[in-house]
Write a structure and sequence with these properties.
It is a single chain. The chain is α+β, with helices and mostly antiparallel strands. It has a single domain, classed as Alpha-Beta Complex (Lambda Exonuclease, Chain A). Helices cover 38% and strands 29% of the residues. The strands form 2 sheets. A 5-stranded mixed sheet has the order 1-4-5-6-7, with helices on both faces.
Length: 125
């Protein structure tokens, strides 16, 4: 079986997400989880960038609209946060588009609105 892509990095990110979920639980806005996760990443020494603006091109023309994933961690992993009762194909498509735009290989989608536990998935292009 092949080795998981960015195994140790994902382990660190997911550990931070579980700590935030364990501490806050459900019921907050996405922005609260995003801010708390930034604190947790800093405390754990996880390199990250918040809401990095991504340019979108159509036929080699740069569009004015930009996408902003919640986090880019370790310079190579996109992390998108949600607060929903259940994730759908729409949220997955959003993350896949971020991966396509950046040409990054790995994305994580985390849902802090699910109960009784944090819902998360990894996606590889």
């Amino acid at each position: 079986m092949p080795e998981l892509l960015f195994k140790e990095e994902v382990y660190s990110i997911v550990g931070a997400m579980f700590e935030v979920y364990k501490t806050l639980g459900t019921g907050y806005l996405e922005a609260v989880y995003q801010e708390a996760l930034a604190v947790e990443f800093t405390q754990r020494g996880i390199p990250f960038e918040r809401e990095h603006q991504l340019s979108i091109f159509y036929k080699d023309v740069k569009l004015q609209k930009r996408y902003c994933p919640d986090f880019v961690c370790f310079g190579q992993i996109i992390l998108e946060l949600k607060v929903l009762p259940k994730m759908t194909k729409i949220e997955v498509a959003q993350l896949i588009n971020y991966l396509k735009i950046t040409k990054m290989k790995l994305g994580l989608l985390a849902n802090f609105g699910s109960s009784p536990q944090l819902e998360w998935n990894r996606y590889v292009l």
